[in-house]
């Protein structure tokens, strides 16, 4: 009860200091508020951006290795002249990997055709992203269906004139719905729609099925040269769930070197890309941003902390007579120290709450102005308020110590 009463009185003293010296106290609290606002805002923005990018990366498929001509990320200098001389993955590579791999749960050969025009009756969609894939594409990528189904094994092997279209494509070609079973015209050929991808929306990496049209690879083989470099051929390998990326990557690297007859010690003529490479780069980038934001926030909070310390010294001076009376009535030194220390913490918590309110209002402002939903994570709020408490302790410990050491007789005589 004594502790609770002490905490209550400390908050009342803090409120009284705020009420009696509004301008001075508000200016001091402003530094703490801006610091806490900066820390929580930067961390929340970074975490939101990281989560959105991670969702985009996850669409590439977890535990999937991409055998391609070009690397997604290159350390140091980018020797593009070497990569230019590499061959693109061929169907022979794909077949050999399917036959020889022991770690692959699924392997798909994929190409991306330039944006084309799609027609259905008088309705037309320009800029549709057309991709042709082998049968196990659904096992190496992550997507859902709003309607319909995936290719059957027979449709993939025979190159049947069937297709799966994105949600936006379906809405534009078939405003009334019911796209399944309709025939659309692509690259001068008629194809029957057997599936519609679920709505995904735009993401930060531009990975979405909303404007995608998927064709069986063997159907595309009858229309274009699917091994042509301009279509960006790639082989996607999905490892078994109980295997790590490194285990799958190690086996695929050895098999590809064998398939391409690369001598021991010689450099590979292919790249093995995986989503974790992008994630690692994002972690490095966001780590720097977190540190920079944290440093800026800490300096702002420290400036506010000096202001709080100044208020506490003034408060001790103004209440010296009261301190003397309390000590003469038997108040212990630790009681006086805790009283002023908790008052300092209370002031910093007030500043932290103001900063938190600023962040909360800022999330609505960003959403209204840019349409971006900022997620206010509990861990960032807890970290911000914890820093407020720490700054309150640091700012108030010296004034509180001086107050606790005052001589009661001299303190009572002070006017």
TrEMBL record:
Keywords of this entry: Cell membrane, Membrane, Transmembrane, Transmembrane helix
Residue ranges of domain MacB-like periplasmic core in the record: 25-254
Record domain ABC3 transporter permease C-terminal: where: 295-408
Membrane topology: Multi-pass membrane protein
Keyword Secreted assigned: no
Subcellular location: Cell membrane
TM segment ranges: 27-46, 285-313, 334-361, 381-403
Keyword field contains Transmembrane helix: yes
Domain of life per record: Bacteria
GO molecular function: transmembrane transporter activity
GO cellular component: plasma membrane
Protein name: FtsX-like permease family protein
């Amino acid at each position: 009860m004594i502790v609770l009463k002490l905490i209550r009185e400390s908050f009342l003293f803090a409120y009284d200091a705020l009420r009696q010296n509004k301008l001075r106290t508000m200016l001091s609290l402003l530094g703490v508020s801006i610091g806490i606002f900066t820390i929580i805002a930067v961390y929340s923005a970074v975490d939101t951006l990281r989560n959105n990018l991670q969702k985009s990366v996850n669409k590439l498929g977890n535990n999937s290795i991409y055998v391609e001509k070009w690397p997604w990320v290159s350390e140091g200098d980018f020797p593009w002249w070497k990569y230019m001389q590499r061959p693109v993955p061929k169907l022979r590579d794909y077949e050999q990997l399917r036959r020889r791999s022991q770690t692959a749960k699924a392997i798909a050969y994929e190409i991306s055709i330039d944006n084309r025009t799609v027609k259905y009756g008088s309705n037309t969609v320009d800029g549709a992203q057309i991709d042709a894939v082998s049968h196990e594409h659904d096992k190496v990528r992550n997507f859902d269906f709003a309607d319909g189904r995936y290719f059957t094994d027979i449709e993939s092997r025979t190159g049947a004139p069937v297709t799966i279209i994105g949600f936006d494509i379906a809405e534009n070609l078939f405003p009334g719905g019911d796209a399944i079973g309709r025939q659309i015209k692509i690259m001068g050929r008629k194809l029957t729609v057997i599936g519609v991808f679920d709505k995904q929306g735009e993401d930060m990496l531009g990975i979405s099925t909303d404007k995608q049209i998927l064709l069986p690879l063997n159907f595309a083989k009858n229309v274009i040269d699917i091994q042509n470099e301009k279509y960006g051929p790639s082989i996607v390998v999905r490892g078994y769930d109980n295997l790590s990326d490194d285990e799958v990557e190690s086996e695929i690297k050895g098999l590809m070197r064998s398939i391409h007859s690369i001598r021991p010690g010689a450099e590979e003529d292919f790249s093995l890309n995986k989503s974790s490479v992008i994630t690692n780069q994002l972690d490095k980038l966001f780590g720097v941003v977190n540190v920079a934001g944290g440093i800026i926030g800490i300096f702002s909070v420290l400036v506010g902390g000096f202001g709080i310390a100044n208020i506490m010294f003034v408060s001790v001076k103004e209440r010296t007579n009261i301190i003397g009376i309390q000590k003469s009535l038997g108040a212990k030194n630790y009681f006086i120290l805790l009283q002023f220390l908790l008052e300092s913490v209370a002031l910093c918590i007030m500043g932290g709450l103001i900063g938190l309110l600023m962040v909360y209002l800022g999330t609505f402002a960003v959403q209204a102005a840019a349409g971006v939903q900022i997620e206010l994570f509990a861990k960032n709020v807890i970290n911000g308020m914890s820093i407020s408490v720490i700054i309150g302790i640091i700012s108030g410990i010296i004034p509180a110590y001086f107050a606790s050491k005052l001589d009661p007789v001299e303190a009572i005589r002070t006017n």
